[in-house]
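Q: I have 133 residues here and want to know how they pack in 3D. Can you give me a structure?
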Amino acid sequence: MHTGRVGFISYVSAERFACAGPSQAEAQWTVSCKAIDAQDIVGRSLLKVKPSSAVNGLELARDSDGQVILSSRVQGFVSRNNEIVKYGPSWFLRDDDGSVPVMFCDVHLTEAHEDVPCCSLSDISTPSSIISN
């Protein structure tokens, strides 16, 4: 099990975001790698954070009415290989700074995959099973 913390940044704008619930101001709006996986965040909105003069340096961003600004829905993450990822441990997605690049959009993203044709097993023989009581 990997330890450490991750923060979320927009892949397009590099703005910082936090995950409601497990992220806390005291931890600079990061989340424990043990607490959350990629699939736990896909489809959710994140909270926008901004620089602050506070001790931890970040605070929740708010609109003119004082409401916390939410992101669009998370559709996936960008791996170190620049591939879309929607499943797996958050520690695997973090860069050297502990940030996880997030893709926010209205388009449903899919992970890259390789279509492998099924093989025929008709010419493979297996030994008979012996059932004993």
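Q: Anything worth noting?
A: The longest helix spans residues 38-41. Residues 5-104 form one domain.
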